[in-house]
Specification:
Two copies of one chain form a homodimer.
Chain A: H1 2-5, H2 11-15, E1 24-35, E2 38-45, E3 58-59, E4 62-64, H3 73-85, E5 91-100, E6 109-117, H4 120-124, E7 131-137, E8 140-141, H5 149-164, E9 178-179, H6 180-191, H7 197-206, E10 210-217, E11 224-229
Parallel strand pairs in A: 1-6
Antiparallel strand pairs in A: 1-2, 1-4, 2-3, 2-7, 5-6, 7-8, 9-11, 10-11
The structure holds a DNA duplex.
DNA sequence: TTAGTAAGTTGGACAGTACAACTAAGTATG
DNA sequence: CATACTTAGTTGTACTGTCCAACTTACTAA
């Protein structure tokens, strides 16, 4: 089996006309969370082994597809996500793929990029030793990233910001119970601009997205109603974007 | 070079830790056009050579990435598009990737899917001998497709219909000069529902998308103003969707 | 001249956001 | 214990853009 699929290039492969070079195939994940009132992304430090490209640099979590372990691309992404964060069922969406002759010095390679949203609570626990959260500065992150990962990260941020304008995606960044002002704050952090309170509330409450729990968030001032995501928590698409800044 | 990247698995590859099976890597394209007042997709008939999976079935145009010829994935997609249609600069967008152990009987394989929009005029000319247009019936097409191409096609139709609600994508299905009612008709064909004339006109004319040419479309009744896409023809994103049917 | 048809315009109803002022419910302070 | 402060949540008006329907315009055909 391995011989047929792999680099070995056995007789069976030759008969099927598959005796030509194959690109490397990887999966990378852009994992977002909110920490300290800022959007963060998870990065891992690359090893320094023999022949490792970009030794010691930071990169998106990911790696080669394992044709023995991974049934499909998404399973591969979920495996890598679980390995680095311990999170098993986040919001996970395919972002796109990047493939070229030169993005990896080891040869023609293509990566299938995913992006995931996880709540802050999950973000603090169970991190792999080599993984670390970095705050987003604009469209990028402080350290220089390996491969074309800066470009992939930028695409992920763009996609996230864009979708937040007309979907309920930030709900997946929230803990199990949250207030409407907290949800609005999350939207504002991702979008990096303030939103109208009343329009925001109208939109969220008229969507079939959240339901109140019989509790309030107590604080130094007026308590706020707590909500949770409804059971069937598919992302909601709104018919309008929030109005653009100008 | 080939030995390092390919199935041969030479010493260099082994030193880099790359001596493991690699998935097959392909690119497939969903090419849409409007013909005879209906959305059509281009399919090719598969060969019947030794070891060819799905012999004689119809499939999306595509094939293996050629690590020698293709600089990157998009170049590969453009090459395959040009080979089948002769079209060189259509609207081309990455759709997603599909990869699993079982989608190709020859082994673990991953395809990078693109979708393209081409005008009817280009659709009639320069078709490859094995390529053929098929009208869309709902989300699919009459013949049974090879691999998981029915699923990919469905994703493409879904994405197209979805984006047409709030973008100017149908403009890329139009000939160089067209009238507003013709553009509206194209929207209606893709969405499979009628749109409001006045709202449609307001939306299109206030977007920085089209400009009138000093000509009219003559017909059996009142002539219509002809328009063309403006030079910088990036797709326009509208702030609202057209209102849903109910 | 008249009927017919499709292009294009106009105006009122409606929905949802923008903006801003307001009320409500708690804590902290003198 | 009253008052200030803060944040939660509501209310009302303006505005934008769609929905719906009726209207005018420009042409052909009979």
């Amino acid at each position: 089996m391995a011989a047929r699929q792999g680099q070995g290039g056995g007789a069976a492969a030759r008969a099927g006309g598959l005796d030509f070079p194959r690109p490397l195939t990887t999966v990378d994940i852009v994992i977002f969370t909110i920490r300290l009132e800022a959007l963060h992304v998870l990065l891992v430090r690359r090893g320094q082994g023999e022949g490792e490209p970009f030794p010691d640099a930071f990169a998106l979590p990911g790696g080669f597809v394992d044709v023995a372990k991974d049934a499909d691309l998404e399973a591969c992404a979920r495996r890598k996500l679980a390995e680095k964060t311990g999170v098993v069922s986040p919001y996970l969406e395919q972002l796109g793929s990047w493939g070229s002759a030169h993005r990896d010095p080891r040869g023609w390679s293509a990566t299938h990029a995913y992006f995931a949203l996880i709540p802050a609570s999950a973000a603090e626990a169970a991190l792999a030793a080599d993984a670390q959260w970095f705050p987003l500065a604009g469209m990028s992150v402080k350290p220089k990233l390996a491969f074309d990962h800066a470009e992939i990260l930028q695409a992920a941020v763009r996609r996230l910001r864009n979708k937040v304008e007309y979907t309920s995606l930030p709900a997946y960044l929230m803990p199990e119970e949250f207030t409407l002002p907290e949800l609005q704050r999350t939207y504002e952090i991702v979008l990096d601009r303030p939103l109208e309170k009343s329009a925001f509330r109208t939109r969220m409450l008229s969507a079939d997205l959240i339901e109140p729990v019989a509790k309030m968030r107590k604080g130094p001032n007026r308590p706020a109603q707590l909500y949770r995501l409804k059971a069937a928590a598919a992302p909601v698409y709104f018919a309008r974007t929030f109005n653009a800044p100008e």
